[in-house]
Each structure stands twice: as structure tokens, then as C-alpha cells.
Amino acid sequence: MPPLSLVHRVRAPQDGAAPPPLLLLLHGVGSHEEDLLGLAPYLDPRFLIVSARGPVTLAPGMYAWFQVVLDPANPVINPEQAESSRRAIIRFIGEAVDVYHADPARVFLMGFSQGAIMSLSVALTAPSAVAGVVAMSGRLLPEVLPLLASPDALRGLPILLQHGTADQVLPVQHGRTARDRLAALPVDLHYREFAMGHQVSEESLTEAAAWLRGRLDGPPDKPRST
Q: What is the pLDDT of residues 149-160, one digit of tens each?
């Protein structure tokens, strides 16, 4: 079996049902695939959880989806790397579904910070590959807006946005701007702010886990057009 195109770690589903839903975890800048895997015990045991490593090496043990100058008001990104990573994640989703025999109709993304940015970028441009997204403490890249899928393809796409009101890395205004832009699209948007910094808190994780569980327990979504 050929190796998948992104380095990753896997937690097998705990209930043995097949094909399992897939939850792809995307880490923040300067982190790695082990980071968000620590959340796995708090997430629905039915998920096949795959935590992927960003393809950009910043230093030993430190990776990213794209290089960025972290100015709180106006982060400056490497747009070519962001676009390359967007395409890489879409490719990796297909590989992971095939290799791990996951349900292609139940692929969810959960990302923190830069991983949230990439989760939104992928879901909004390739919604047929994604059943829902949890975006924690991220933002919506302006560079992605021209690539958005059609309104019909985006209709009903479940999105949970979470942001900390005391976030000093990506201040809460980034979350509110993403909320306002997404509110103009026909997605199924849920936005929540928490009294926290640039982090995943117990409260925000509890909500994210419940939201994801609700997506699994709800009636199957009608396929969205591409």
C-alpha cells in the first residue's frame, strides 16, 4: 500500500461499525500531528480520527500549513503555500477514505488556529468532500473567497465557529468577520464565543464534541451538488 501524502496519526473507531465516519484534525502553526490527537478521548468513539501534519517545516518538530507573520490585526501569509495545502488536504481526504475504509459521506474537519483556517478553506471550496467543520480560533482567508463553491453546493453545510474573546493571537474580530461573511452564505452556521484566549478550553471542547455527536446522530444529509 503506498504511503498517504501527509504524515499523520490515527485513532481507530471504538465501536467497530463500518464504514466509520472520519474526523480529520488539523493543527495550528508551529505544532504537529500529535497535538490535537490529545483531544481524541473526548470525542465521539464512533469516529475514525486522523490527525495530519502540515507540509511546511518551520523547525524540527514544528510544522505549518503555510508560513505567516502573526500580526494580530492583519496576519501576512504565504498565499502559494496556503493554496498548495488546501489542495493537499482535499487530496489527503480522498486517500484517507480509501485506505482506512471510511464513509465518504461522513467526513468532518476540526482545526485549531491555522488548522481552522484550512478547515474552512477546504470545506467552502470542496463541500462535496466534507460533511461538516469545526473551526476553533481561526479566520477566513480573503484569498479563498474567489474560490468558494456555488451557493447550491454550500447549501446546508454544517459549520461550527468558536473563538475566544481574549484571544491575543487572532483577536475575536477575526471570528466575527468570518461569522458575518459565512452568514451571507446558505451554510448551516453556529457561532460561539468563549471567555478564553487562543486555546481550546474545556467548555469549547465540550460544545464541539456535542456538536459533532449531533451531526452523527441526526438524519443523513442530502448530498450537496458540486
A: 999 999 999 999
